[in-house]
Amino acid sequence: MSNPKNRGERPRVLLTNAIHPALQLELEQHCDVIIAPDSKAITLKQLVADVDGMIVRSMLPPDLFDHAPRLRAVVRHGVGLDMIPVEAATKCGIPVANLPGSNTTAVVEYCLASMLHLKRGLTSIDARLRRSGWAAARSLADHGSELGAATCGIVGFGMVGAKLAHVANGLGMRVLVLTRRPETLPLQIEVANKATLFAQSDIVVLCCPLNEQTRGLVDAATLALMKPTALLINVSRGPVVDTDALIEALHAGRLGGAALDVHDKQPLVGDEVIFDCPNLLLTPHVAGITDTSMAGMSRGSVTTLLALLNGERPENVVNPEVFAASS
Fold this sequence. Notes:
Elements: H1 4-7, E1 12-15, H2 21-28, E2 32-35, H3 41-48, E3 53-56, E4 74-76, H4 86-91, E5 96-97, H5 104-120, H6 122-132, H7 134-140, E6 151-155, H8 159-170, E7 174-178, E8 190-191, H9 194-200, E9 203-206, H10 220-225, E10 231-234, H11 243-252, E11 257-260, E12 280-282, H12 291-309, H13 321-326
Parallel strand pairs: 1-2, 1-3, 3-4, 4-5, 6-7, 6-9, 7-8, 9-10, 10-11, 11-12
């Protein structure tokens, strides 16, 4: 594999999507930057053929690295690695890095915002105030409830789950957690099995990774365990939830409401049946995106990518065995 440093060339870097403008300018001081015009597999395969590094914000085709003879660094602009065929990268000797914790605060705040949106119905109150007046709008407040009186069930105790548990506990909520590592839970947080968590929680938040154990985790049988007033919030990945079963539960009134930031197929195009569900908040995979988190993720991506291109070995590389193979 040729190295641009040996040829006196500036490295070429492919961005699957634009990053924060200020950090893109910083990257351009060191590299020639190419932004993919779209995220189609054919486009990415063509562009990756002549680049040294890559920052990823879109799903990569599984055989992308077969078309990347000079690629020597890939950085995920975020945390989740399901967008990158890491095993294929490892076989090709390409280090892959992500940015743990880079959008944790943004995702936790999204979860809280979703809870409040569904629990307090402020959007409905605002709409009725404008349409029907003061008294009619005030009557809707009688149906709201406070978070402090609720039990919050959290599936997954990574950085997001741990911070959300801390915040929820601070608000006075009882917190139940389903995790493979119960020994990591603080004393004030209760470990629970799946059945207990879904049966006793007023709000269930999914923030687990997508894998064979979590795919379809929330199916019709699991939804049937939940209280008819309970809420489901998914900030993990769409396939963790059986969407058809969720749609049926919402229409039948067997669930109080849901917030979905992730979906089986993305992007949503607007004609999916889920748009007709009651008590459902839909967002386009934005839980981890704020101006603050975008700047942080872009800064981390640029710093990590430049380090890799300079021959360094950052600690956030997820397949460090590639370094041993090249030693």
